[in-house]
Amino acid sequence: MLQVEVLTLFPGVFASPLQESLLRRAQEKGLLCVRVRNLRDWAEGRHRIADDVPYGGGAGMVLKPEPIFQALESLRATGDPLRVILLTPQGERFTQETARRLAAETRRIVLLCGRYEGIDERVRLGAVDEEISIGDYVLAGGELAALVVIEAMARLLPGALGAEASAREDSFWEGLLDYPHYTRPAMFRGMEVPEVLLSGHHEQIRRWRRKEALRRTRARRPDLLARAPLSPEDRELLREIEQET
Ligand code: 6GU
């Protein structure tokens, strides 16, 4: 069972995403356990304030170190060892490879959600094992990024996806964009479903899907195509695609 501990000042953000669809099912099946904890619970004083003004002045607030260290100490007092991950735009880019590595963790994964203008640097130095960013844009806090990381890990847990969906995770499709999908009706607003998909010829369907995945990856993500493991058949399909264009 993959165990995730979320530390945040906004636990409400996690309520519905964790109770819907794949994340709900993964938890119900006992594949995943997510606990969301409010950092304020470890803040001192009558007002339980977890942030403060920055030394040196300037706008915005900085997350205080004490509530974070206290929270981690109380988590460490029981249960499995921790792997502490800070969600921040300054982190290493999150990829499918990161998702695979984390989904295989035996330690509890702590997702520490940064907020406001930042987090006291001593948290980084003394408490964080790893920093993750989900892309080159700025969010108001790490909460939505934490949910992205949780969902990407959860769908990789054995048994989390149906057989059909997990088949598209296998190494055959690694590094390629998906092929086009169609469902009924066969004709919609003048647009037809490709003939081959109605044919029942499984080998031709497999080849068509592979070719369209290659075509789409070549058009949209040549960077991915350059790194994808390609078979001799893939190279032949790519030659066909080049001749068509
Ligand atoms: Cl992890 N946090 C914030 N605040 N912004 C981000 C991010 C994380 N990843 C991309 N942008």
Please give the structural blueprint.
Blueprint: E1 2-8, H1 15-18, H2 21-28, E2 32-38, E3 51-52, E4 62-63, H3 65-76, E5 82-93, H4 96-103, E6 108-113, E7 118-119, H5 121-127, E8 130-133, H6 143-154, H7 163-167, E9 187-188, E10 191-192, H8 195-199, H9 202-220, H10 222-227, H11 232-244
Parallel strand pairs: 1-2, 1-6, 4-7, 5-6, 5-8
Antiparallel strand pairs: 3-4, 9-10
Helix pairs in contact: 3-5, 4-6, 9-11
This protein binds 6-chloroguanine (6GU).
The site of 6-chloroguanine (6GU) has 15 residues, from strand 5 and strand 8.
Walk me through this protein's architecture:
By secondary structure, this protein is of the alpha/beta class. It has two domains: 2-154, 3-Layer(aba) Sandwich (Alpha/beta knot); 169-244, tRNA(m1g37)methyltransferase, domain 2 (Trp Operon Repressor, Chain A, Orthogonal Bundle). The chain has eleven helices and ten strands. It has a five-stranded parallel beta sheet with strand order 2-1-6-5-8, with helices on both faces. Helix 3 (65-76) packs parallel to helix 5 (121-127) and helix 9 packs across helix 11 (232-244). The chain is elongated. The model has no long low-confidence stretch (mean pLDDT 95).
